[in-house]
Design a protein that fits this description.
With about 140 residues, the chain is mostly helical. The chain is built from five helices and no strands.
């Protein structure tokens, strides 16, 4: 049973929380690890260094878009492949548990599932630019 009165606020809370976390992750890569350091890390994984700049941009811009509710369904759907890539390339060899040295793959996979859920659920309450014609409407099955 879905509580249609509180579901939009619950989606809003999930959207803003994950948006803040994406924003912080991107800003840490930018200001703490630095773009050059992040690129070096990506290269150490066998990935192109340029992919690190795209990752920082997606995390920062995607985080802001989720916080504000700008096309959140589309942003969340776009974040899923990036998160699955992080699970495979960045953390896959370190095992399941995130508390393992260098982290495990379960945390980015959980993030990917959460983003897929937001993409399926919709924008939630207080979306600045809703995703599509049916955004903000409650549909009863």
């Amino acid at each position: 049973m879905i509580d249609f009165k509180t579901a939009p606020q619950a989606i809003f809370a999930l959207r803003v929380t994950t948006g803040l976390l994406f924003l912080v992750h991107g800003l840490i890569k930018l200001f703490v690890f630095t773009p050059a350091g992040t690129a070096g890390y990506f290269e150490s994984l066998g990935l192109p260094g340029a992919l690190s700049y795209l990752t920082m941009l997606v995390e920062i811009a995607g985080g802001i878009a989720l916080i504000l509710g700008v096309k959140a369904r589309f942003v969340s759907a776009a974040l899923v492949p990036m998160l699955l890539g992080a699970a495979v390339f960045g953390h896959g060899s370190f095992g399941f548990n995130w508390s393992n040295p260098n982290g495990g793959w379960e945390y980015p996979v959980m993030w990917a599932v959460v983003q897929a859920a937001i993409a399926a659920l919709g924008d939630g309450a207080y979306a600045l630019v809703p995703s599509g014609k049916t955004a903000g409407r409650v549909h009863y099955a």
